[in-house]
Amino acid sequence: MLPDSHGRFGPYGGRYVPETLMPALLELEEEYAKAKKDRRFQTDLAYYLKQYVGRPTSLYRADRLTKKLGGAKIYLKREDLCHTGAHKINNAIGQVLLAMRMKKRRIIAETGAGQHGVATATAAAMFGLQCEIYMGTEDMQRQALNVYRMRLLGATVTGVDAGSRTLKDAISEAMRDWTTNVRTTHYILGSVLGAHPYPMMIRDFQAIIGKEARKQILAAEGKLPNYLVACVGGGSNSIGLFHAFLGDHKVKMIGVEAGGSGIVSGKHAARFSGGKPGVLQGTMTYLLQDDNGQINLTHSVSAGLDYAAVGPEHSLYHDQGRIEYTYATDTEAMSAFDLLAREEGIVPALESAHAIAEVVKLAPTLKKSQLIIANLSGRGDKDVQQVAKMRGVTL
Amino acid sequence: MRERHKASTGRQRVTSGSSPITYHSVLTQNRLDTTFRRLKDDSKKALIAYLMAGDPGLAETEQLVVALEEAGADIIELGVPFSDPIADGPVIQQAAERALKNGTSLRKILASVKSLRQRTEIPIVLMLYYNSIHAMGCEEFCKSAKAAGVDGLIVPDMPPDEAEPLKKPADATGLSLIFLLAPTSTTDRRKLVAKESHGFVYYVSLTGITGSKLSNVGDIHDNIKKLRKVSGSPVAVGFGVATPEDAARVSKMADGVIVGSAIVKQIAAHQQDPGMVGHVAEFVRSLKAAMVPA
Questions:
Q1: FRET partner for A123 with CA separation of 20 to 30 A, picked from A90, A301, B147, B285?
Q2: Subunit contact A183:B184, Cβ cutoff 8 A
Q3: Count of CB contacts below 8 A, A vs B?
Q4: Which of 3.20.20.70, 3.40.50.300, 3.40.50.720, 3.40.50.10490 is the CATH number of B29-290?
Q5: How far apart are CA A347 and CA A344, in angstroms?
Q6: Residue B215: pLDDT band with limits 50, 70, 90
Q7: Domain residue spans in chain B?
Q8: Confidence class of residue B29 from pLDDT cuts 50, 70 and 90?
């Protein structure tokens, strides 16, 4: 079972953090191991996931989309139906419960699109914990709605005006806060990134997506899907869907990165198309970097995919060829966004629209008897304003 | 205790007085070890001055190194700018941004150190994030750094647990790998850091990032006492040492005092001023003057 005791997924992962954080990471690893075996913790987690988050989320057969694309039968795993509108809450609830066990009453988190920030602020409010969210100022502009939502939920939202002013810089600032306040504060990282045990723990909290989907597709179709498709920013919704199927060797998996303005333009966040291994923010993984190891600026229409590194477990599966990684450009994601809205009455998050964009390419090449499950990781309400603005529509 | 030196390189270990000091090679005596020994013999403490290489430019960095040595700095810690410095506060982050903007790179910094070596023998320690090393490759990096005249390495995002790929080439070339110890470190971690650290142990005075305010000096004292029980290496204290008063207080308990953000701030404030080097040297002189022998 990966990772190994050093938090390694093959050559990737590990714990590249300042010494000040090492004891906290070791404590977290130990506490998580205990919680995992603790029936009470698992019962609590299951309770909140069911009654508060609204799990299990449905596996919806998208008939009109299927018909339109004229190939494989398409199912959508409806994480957009989770409370707060995205899969991020699965992890936030799990980690808030852990923070309570560790008697840490202050929660911090980073956020890109704002979905993880909203999920964390929500979970913190529900348990009465103090909460501070770091967010790049560029992201605060394009996700203004989520900024206000977090504030409504009682969180302090702190803008980060360094570097590219996006997710990467928000993570660095959250790590600095954690370094300073580590004795009283738990850092709820939002994706399968950072130092061990985060990539493992967050994967475990998100793996419920795939566990449910596997049961649901077997119940609906009596067989496993041919393809799983999900977008990959840090990679938590994708690993969440894929994990339960890793042992099913016939199930193919496709992770969709942000192609931005195209790979040639250099303005993208497709780590597996333009990156190489290195260390950023606690972990060894594929990074977009220059020859001197400086981290490149990234670009994507979707704030949640706009990040220079990818979860270390993905790097291993990439090298092994277990998961195929491709990308969708901003333009492709935008037309998938429209397509899903019009054909299925679902406005997807711009992140999830990248997965749909791949389905648009893939489904017509497959037989009607074949099955695709795409992870609809979040809903698009948060993106409506941005999309309108991009199209010159004043609301 | 440091068997891997003997095992891997067959080099000698020389001890002096009560504090065991490792020489990577008798032929190329490590400037760090020599400096700490000399200061100890004179009952003095080391002033370790941090500069962000390339801020405002590498030519100025070279001038600063020479001027700060004259002003009383015993060791220079040269920061290598990185785009995402997670252990650093805003002062050093901004200095890194300035340095990167004017094209500073690790290779250019090593060339600068090489040229400095014609003018000074002051020990030079690089502080750099692991990705800068990884991008060049650990072996090539260690060889180039040693050839340029670098004496030691501080890698703030590489705890001893992750240091394996760097240890061997660092040992083989005779670069001292200096690890950080924090107020949050447990007994086990203290032992690990003490065992793995060469040259000196970098004690982080506070739970926080560089440039924070120095807090509880009593805590520093207690932690250094605990560290001395498991380590014979010199201990230098950094993070938050900003004023001559801070330097005076810290120098009473440690073997070395590291001043970073406060110096970088001076450089930033006098960026446009032709007398910048003189101003910074004056500040360093005031730090050193405050560090009276115990």
A1: A301
A2: yes
A3: 118
A4: 3.20.20.70
A5: 9
A6: confident
A7: 29-290
A8: low
